[in-house]
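Lay summary. Proteins are chains of building blocks that fold into shapes, and those shapes determine what they do. In this project we predict the shape from the chain. Here is one chain we studied, written as its sequence of building blocks.
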Amino acid sequence: MINRAGFGSNVMTVVERMGGDLKRRLEGLAAAWKATDLADLNTIAIEWMRSHRRCRAIAIEHPPTRWWGTN
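And here is the predicted shape, written in a compact code that computers can read:
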């Protein structure tokens, strides 16, 4: 579905089991995504350039202290 929408060359991030001891983050290109051993409930993010012709969202930058794994 992501590839058909024209986002296959974009980075996709999956975060699973958030807040638990087994939390995990996986990243890769959407078109090359091969992971199948994901938890049943997860969060998926797709990164794209604001100049992409399909972009209709407003980009919001968070301070670095809010990025994954930094406290």
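What the prediction tells us: Residues 19 and 42 are 11 Å apart (CA to CA).
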